[in-house]
Amino acid sequence: MTILHRLSFSLLLATTLLAGCSSHTTSPEVVDRTATTSQNIEGLLRKAETLPATPAADLKLQAARMLAQNGDETRAVDILDSINLAQIPPTLAFEVAKLKTLLVSGSEDPAEALKLLDPNRLGALPVAQQAELGQLRADIWLQQNNSIAAVRELIVSSLLTLDPTEQQHYHNRIWQVLQQTPLNGIKSATSANNNYQEQGWFELAMMLRSSTDMAGRQQALENWSVLWESHPALTLPPAGLMGLEFDGEQLFAQRIGVILPLSGDLAKPASAIRKGMEAQIEVMRREGKPVPQLIMFDSTGVTDVTPLLQQARQQAVDFLLGPLTPSLINQLSSLPEQNIPVLALNSAEAGPSRPWQLELSSEHEARMVVRRALADGHRNLLIISPAAEWGDRIADVMKEELESAGGQVTGNMRYEASGNYSDQIAELLQIRGSAERKKKLRHPSQFKQYRRQDADAILMTAQPDPARLIKPMLNYHFASDMPIYATSHLYPGSPNPVRDVDMDGITFCDLPWLLQPPSETHRLLNSKGEDTLSRFGRLFALGADAIKAYPWLPQLEQNPGSFLLGETGRLAMDSNKRLLRELSCTTFTSGTPASLTSSQAATNKN
After folding, report:
1. How far apart are CA 20 and CA 386, in angstroms?
2. pTM
3. Cα 479–482–483 angle (5° rounding)?
4. Which of 8, 131, 276, 578 could be a cystine partner for 357, CB 3.0 to 4.6 Å?
5. How far apart are CA 487 and CA 467, in angstroms?
6. What are the boundaries of the signal sequence (predicted)?
């Protein structure tokens, strides 16, 4: 039994013992408050011997509860066993069976618990007890690692209640269990003899789980919605299905302070972030939504965050975006008290005032690439990265992420920009060793060269020019069949089939801003002549998401599993108040990212 299931039964048992039986058919027995608990129990049992079946069962149930509260579960079960369920009303029979089930479940006998809660043994129950019965049976199925059976029970319970709040609870639970169910189990369930509600849930889980990137999931959800337009999961979507429900309570700031360097080396990237914020605000204004006023604070050369906070308070700022500089962010985090909420634009160390964080980090992207390779079933990988500090840092992150998931790095190549890629790749793939073996053969003409066989895929970090040379060399050295997963460093930002055809077959992950059809914010910046399709252009997306996300930060923090679809990725929050970005992933096909080709094809078709 998992810890989650133990906790579930412990809570149910405590609730059952404290709540008492709400379906008594006789008045509660009055027991002398000065008597000991033992005397109370014995008094109840003696009284039960003189009464008909139903009031006797009622008193025995009270006695069993007292025994269970005192830790004498064995005797409690013996007393419950003496009650003939067939002779008492179904409502009371359910309370007896429920208590016994919880006591038996604590002794690790889920199969026996299922027998006790067999609906056929209990008779016609009121709707509320039928729903509760389904919840209990679902917990027991989960103990037996049968999540599909648990889902079926929860679906029945969800259909028994007319209370939207209760229905939402059931839908959330159904989706949570389906998300933890192996994909093969869901696939098998879709082929079973299901009713409308069951089939809809299973197909929803199957379609979304089979999609590996944000765009695919969104399309799968749209397809499912067309086929299942009357399904309860569409009427009351479970938490985490479509992201945040946009009717919840939001933050709203009338005056947002933006802490960015307005001059110096970082002024140009800071300007792009600011323009992204302004464009998102303009889109909100056009949609008739209330919009904040941006108040700029210059952090150029600032080494102490305190004066910036003083300025923000003097300007009556409601919310802060920024700063960019890690040292200033960490000062914010270490403050004993900070009464202005902050969304920092870089990572923050732990501290009493740790702010929310949104960042464009190469390390985060590297982890995404590794997870994509792992999701495709690869465990033994080679790493190719530039011989530079930033390349080493990303390679280390890839190795850490891979090994933490049970994979391993079987070889690595630190390429020199001015080096001989052919020689370096031949060494990585151990082709030279293969050639040496050829020299020793008696009949060299029969020899066939081959690459190393202890790796099944490649992780790569490379700028565009090296990437366009490395991929053909990998093909030349017998690695054309090895999948390659790369960070976005190889993609300049705009499609060019002639320039990038040599990268065909490489899968890489990047912002939806660059790999999906342009949003209203993106189109607005394009109309103003901004260079949005470039590595530098990614900063527009960061600024846009800072504005898009800030109203929903408390909900994202308080509701694990909820997310927001942003320009920089699908945004969800971890326990360190950091917005994690799930990126779009695509593969070069005929020199163009496939997601862009698909989007264009869909546009032309429509």
Report:
1. 68
2. 0.63
3. 140
4. 578
5. 11
6. 1-19
